[in-house]
Design goal:
The chain is of the alpha+beta class. The chain has one domain. It is 37% helix and 25% strand. Strands 1, 2, 3, 4, 5 and 6 form a six-stranded mixed sheet that branches. A hairpin with a 2-residue loop joins strand 5 and strand 6. The longest helix is centred in the middle third of the chain and has 36 residues. The radius of gyration is 18 Å and the shape is globular. The termini are close together.
Length: 174
């Protein structure tokens, strides 16, 4: 069993308006809450053109046309909920302020959906695949507290998505 491994995650590159983004082409389908794919979107300046020599390139598991179709669907679904989520966030903040220091239990997914909508809202209309691929490099590490990677978004997702965590843990198996 390995203690660490450097990997390169493939990203399909798209243009939305005047900006270019990468969409994770390997882990995309492993997220149970589909709106969380928003956290797998990266600006191209966070990605590399090629695979580093010390990194293991992961295979491509999803095409960009499938990703764009799904993004449109997710944005439509989230746009119907964004006003409701905004009200819920305000209400829970107000209750928290009134009951301080008593902790108020919130539905974490409300805030997640709101942030996901904000990230994905730029993909509502004009999305164009560029037919290029770039790579996100990170090191997968195992410690006493579990598995982690050198990317905040992926670490956050690993803590919430069991299938993603298991897949990333498997990188250290062989």
């Amino acid at each position: 069993m390995l203690g660490r491994r450097r990997v390169a995650v493939p990203y399909n590159i798209v243009e939305a308006g005047d900006a270019k983004f990468g969409l994770d082409a390997h882990y995309w389908w492993l997220l149970d809450k589909r709106y969380r794919v928003a956290f797998l979107v990266k600006p191209v300046d966070a990605l590399a053109l090629g695979v580093d020599r010390d990194a293991v390139p992961l295979p491509i598991r999803v095409g960009v046309s499938e990703q764009l179709r799904e993004l449109k669907s997710i944005v439509e679904e989230l746009s119907g909920r964004v006003d409701e989520d905004r009200r819920e966030l305000r209400r829970s903040a107000a209750v928290s302020a009134l009951l301080y220091p008593i902790p108020v239990r919130r539905d974490e997914s409300v805030g997640e959906r709101y942030v996901a909508y904000y990230i994905l809202s730029r993909f509502k209309d004009d999305m164009k695949p560029l037919g290029t691929r770039m790579w996100l490099h990170f090191t997968v590490k195992r410690s006493s507290s579990g598995v982690s990677v050198g990317d905040k978004s992926y670490n956050w997702l690993i803590s919430r998505e069991p299938r993603l965590r298991k897949e990333i843990e498997m990188l250290l198996e062989g």
